[in-house]
Amino acid sequence: MLNGEFGEGTQKAMELLVAIGDALDAEKMIPISCAHAASSGQEGDMYFVELLADGDAYCKVPTTTNPVYDFEYFDKLFEIPKDEADVARRVKEAYMRVGATLSWSCTPYITENIPLYGENVAFSESSATPYVNSVLGARTNREAAQSALAAGVIGKTPKYGLHIKDNRKGTVLVKVEAMLKDEFDYTLLGFYVGKQIGYGIPVLTNISRRPNTEGLINFCAMSNTSGAIPMFYIPGFTVEASTAQEAFHGDLPLDKITVTDNELIQTHKELQTISGKIDFVMLGCPHYTLKQVEQVAKLLNGKKIRDEVALWVCTSATTKLLANRNGYVHIIEKAGGHLVADTCIDEPCWYTYKNKVGMTDSPKCAYYRRFKEAIVARLKDCVEAAISGKWG
Amino acid sequence: MEITLKCHKIIGGYGEGEALVSREPICFYLTDPKTGTVREKSHELIGKNLANKVLVFPSGKASSVVQIDGLFKLASNNVAPKAMIVKDVETVLIVSAFIAKVPLVDRLEKDPFTAIQTGDFVKVDAEKGLVTITKRGS
């Protein structure tokens, strides 16, 4: 493959995998069952996917894609700079040529692309990697869009890191004394833990209430916004270890931290930068599940979003289809909001809010600074602020 | 005084320049793509410029999407670091350096944070696996 006998695209994909394997002392390549490429519609992404597609590479195993944005939807509402739109269009077209499954979703692991326990896979995207490793128990490294796409094209990945059982050992003991009341507390916990640990495999103990899917998605996404957490354990609730001792493979933790209510309150305070009038509410980073879309619809039912405030909810095409069937799209739109598929919050389609102040339930959304200011608060508070037009 | 230390090649090539040391992980997206100036709020390097430096830092951070695009944009505008020395390497950082064509090494035989200070002159020969440090003012 490295000599180009399968075409130049396959050759480039192999070159990247070999560079990674060499750097990380992989002994060999191993087969994978599926991949997720965190496509983004940005220049670095375009460079690599076009390099592969132009060289006739084609995915060997199912390889889903991350959101870019629903061009048709936004084109009707706002002016999108032509050069930016061209990049997004070219990226989408190149992923199609390279044979990817066009899910345009950042949470494919709950709907379109679900690996099994113990399978080797190559998943990029900040919430996808830890979710697949920890909640599903499949094995992936913290891939980039390009290395995941290359693995999807070759059907293999270098055997290193989290593909090896010994490396899946917990590193830091996180004693969670804080009361985790809802999904948003997992957002705060993830943001705090990522910031404290940086890079590592935390083992969260003391959690007595069963976490739900949305809470775990939030923990995954936020701990990889403030840090790089490819895997974590909540013994008793995540699949690979039923006790902390098992999660540490019988060894002692390298480090210990304790999280009390105080740390979560403090984290939230730091994220609530200002108060007052708001221009928009941005939800669905990561993409909302059907349950979260339903929550928004219930809060908006029979209400009206203030004229000068825009409310956006991002989700996958699959979830939007179901939301439509269940009447949630109708409710959200009737209240003056939008439910948009295939779209990421970190895209040029949001130009119009560049100098605006808004709210979100996602520190990840706030962190990338597409907006002048994004106050972080609970889903319910965000929706209520969209109705009242102000926060605090 | 000049010291030469062994290191481990991740992405090949040669780069030299003034060292810029960060004890905090780095997200390339939170720099100005036109100039290479760090603009991440509350980061120890805020206001400092990465362009043409030899960047010494513990690890990358943040979403893979933005990390790669961030370094790619810096490289497209010729304001990427000349080379990078890290402690904990992960896939996203390797891909970032591969796409942006910036030499990247790890496993320096001494702790890079003791061996190198901001302002030292550093040569990174990733191909030979060598880092040469000339202390500032010497």
What does this structure look like?
The complex is a heterodimer of chains A (392) and B (138). Chain A has helices spanning 8-23, 43-54, 71-77, 82-97, 128-136, 145-154, 183-197, 213-226, 244-247, 261-271, 290-300, 317-325, 328-334, 363-367, 379-388; strands at 29-31, 35-37, 63-65, 122-123, 156-158, 172-176, 202-205, 255-259, 276-277, 280-288, 310-315, 338-341, 357-360, 373-376, 390-391. By secondary structure, chain A is an alpha/beta fold. Chain A has 3 domains: 8-165, Aconitase, domain 3 (2-Layer Sandwich), CATH 3.30.499; 169-269, no CATH class; 272-391, Aconitase, domain 3, CATH 3.30.499. In chain A, the strands form 5 sheets. Chain A has a 5-stranded parallel sheet. In chain A, strands 3-2-4 form a 3-stranded parallel sheet. In chain A, strand 6, helix 7 (183-197) and strand 7 form a beta-alpha-beta unit. In chain A, helix 1 crosses helix 2 and helix 7 (183-197) packs parallel to helix 8 (213-226). Chain A is globular, with a radius of gyration of 21 Å. In chain A, 56% of the residues are buried. The mean pLDDT of chain A is 95. With 138 residues, chain B is α/β, with parallel strands linked by helices. Chain B has a single domain (2-134), classed as Glucose Oxidase, domain 1, CATH 3.50.30.10. Chain B is 20% helix and 28% strand. Chain B is built from 3 helices and 8 strands; from the N terminus they run E-E-E-E-H-E-H-E-H-E-E. Chain B has helices at 64-76, 91-100, 112-115, and strands spanning 2-6, 8-11, 14-21, 54-57, 83-86, 104-106, 121-125, 130-134. In chain B, strands 1-8-7-3-4-5-6-2 form an 8-stranded mixed sheet. The radius of gyration of chain B is 13 Å and the shape is globular.
